[in-house]
């Protein structure tokens, strides 16, 4: 009898796994059959359109600002009905191949990660049928969806267009990409050596070329109220409490404020945090403390700034000069 119960349990597990995979396949379907360039164009139009939110007040780009490498300058962003979220908005460059999304790492598929903000109450809060109605009533958008996905296009195609656009957002055109090939000047080389050194240890958790390791670490930051348990929110495992994924440092000079809660304003202060061996809550996963003189700090900052992509920098300057 016991065996049957066990077997039943595994069967259910397997069945769940199976439906999950099927659903993922369903969601990911269309990748090959559609005209990707048209899908990207559609996705871009949707990304900047506030029709995606319940009260038509915000778009994806309200929080993922293109002039700040698709991150936000606010500590935490505001969703519909002026509700604040509890985390800092990350950049969405270079998501292709990322193994998980969101800071607890619970979503492994970009289609699902895109559905998240579309549906959640604090973000856009608009349900599928309403969005399809809005698209259908916009003749230009409606015709383009038909061209890209066919007459009977569905909600998952809308999600897919947004995914195709996000996958097209690459940023690998920084000074760093050129200097690593041809060599940089003395200050930059000094910054690079510090970044890769055993004493600072930055490159262990922020390895090139994306400068993120897709693992979870505790920097001793999470404290106070409301407490963010990071990965622990997903696993309920106390060894995962307060752990966050190391964010990519590509374009980091444009994405202040920093950390999951946006609690650090400048890169200089981030460096100070590491010098002190992390935040106030001890112990944490940082194994080193170190001292840097002004020149070394400057060199490390210079290295971090060299990770800003040319296109991201131009988008930033264009927006600044337009006021
Ligand atoms: C109200 C602000 C806000 C809006 C609107 C918003 N986002 Fe986000 N986005 C965030 C925040 C905050 C996070 C980090 C959440 C977390 O990790 O818990 C995030 C995370 C993401 C991620 C995961 C990135 C990663 O590397 O883990 C993706 C993908 C994303 N958003 C895409 C979108 C898309 C597409 C839209 C529009 C449909 C959108 N977002 C709208 C604030 C927003
Ligand atoms: C043990 C792994 C680890 C080491 C070592 C490490 N980092 Fe980090 N880094 C992280 C994690 C995790 C975060 C995100 C923490 C959070 O969101 O609360 C982070 C965040 C950052 C940020 C903020 C990025 C953003 O977009 O918010 C910067 C800048 C940074 N690290 C630079 C460095 C530098 C420079 C060094 C070396 C002095 C370094 N890191 C060493 C894991 C590490």
Brief sketch in words of this structure:
The chain is built from 14 helices and 2 strands; from the N terminus they run H-H-H-H-H-H-H-H-H-H-E-H-E-H-H-H. With 323 residues, it is mainly α.
Task: Give the arrangement of secondary structure elements.
Elements: H1 2-28, H2 36-47, H3 60-63, H4 110-119, H5 128-136, H6 139-149, H7 155-167, H8 175-182, H9 186-196, H10 202-205, E1 216-217, H11 232-235, E2 244-245, H12 267-275, H13 294-305, H14 310-321
Antiparallel strand pairs: 1-2
Bound molecules: heme C (2 copies).
Mind explaining what this structure looks like?
The chain has 323 residues and is an all-alpha fold. It has 2 domains: 31-167, Cytochrome c-like domain (Cytochrome Bc1 Complex, Chain D, domain 2); 175-321, Cytochrome Bc1 Complex, Chain D, domain 2. Helices cover 45% and strands 1% of the residues. The protein is built from 14 helices and 2 strands. It has helices at residues 2-28, 36-47, 60-63, 110-119, 128-136, 139-149, 155-167, 175-182, 186-196, 202-205, 232-235, 267-275, 294-305, 310-321, and strands at 216-217, 244-245. The chain has a two-stranded antiparallel ribbon with strand order 1-2. Helix 2 crosses helix 7 (155-167) and helix 9 (186-196) packs across helix 13. The longest helix is centred in the N-terminal third of the chain and has 27 residues, at 2-28. The chain is globular, with a radius of gyration of 22 Å. Residues 200-202, 204-206, 217, 219, 221, 244, 246-247, 249, 252, 255, 258-260, 267, 270-271, 274, 285-286 line the site of one heme C.
């Amino acid at each position: 009898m016991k065996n049957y119960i066990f077997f039943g349990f595994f069967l259910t597990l397997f069945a769940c796994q199976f439906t999950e995979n099927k659903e993922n396949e369903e969601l990911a379907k269309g990748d090959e059959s559609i005209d990707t360039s048209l899908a990207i164009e559609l996705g871009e139009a949707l990304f900047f359109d506030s029709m995606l939110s319940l009260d038509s007040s915000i778009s994806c780009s309200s929080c993922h600002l293109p002039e700040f490498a698709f991150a936000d300058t606010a500590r935490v962003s505001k969703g519909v009905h002026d509700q604040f979220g509890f985390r800092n908005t990350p950049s969405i460059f270079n998501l292709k191949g990322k193994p998980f999304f969101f800071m607890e790492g619970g979503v492994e598929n970009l289609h699902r990660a895109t559905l998240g903000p579309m549906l959640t109450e604090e973000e856009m809060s608009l349900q599928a049928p309403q969005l399809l109605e809005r698209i259908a009533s916009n003749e230009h958008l409606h015709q383009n969806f038909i061209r890209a996905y066919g007459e009977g296009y569905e909600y998952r195609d809308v999600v897919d267009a947004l995914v195709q656009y996000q996958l097209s957002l690459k940023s690998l055109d920084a000074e760093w990409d050129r200097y690593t090939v041809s060599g940089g000047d003395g200050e930059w080389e000094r910054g690079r050596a510090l970044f890769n050194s055993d004493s600072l240890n930055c490159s262990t958790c922020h390895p090139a070329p994306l400068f993120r390791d897709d693992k979870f670490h505790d920097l001793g930051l999470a404290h106070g109220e409301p407490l963010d348990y990071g990965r622990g929110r997903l696993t309920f495992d106390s060894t995962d409490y307060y752990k966050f994924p190391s964010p990519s440092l590509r374009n980091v000079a444009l994405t202040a404020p920093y950390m999951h809660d946006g609690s650090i304003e400048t890169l200089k202060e981030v460096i100070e945090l590491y010098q002190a061996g992390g935040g106030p809550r001890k112990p944490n996963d940082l194994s080193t403390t170190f001292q840097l003189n002004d020149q070394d700090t400057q060199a490390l900052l210079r290295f971090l700034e060299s990770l800003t992509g040319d296109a991201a920098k131009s988008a930033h300057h264009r927006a600044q000069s337009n006021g």
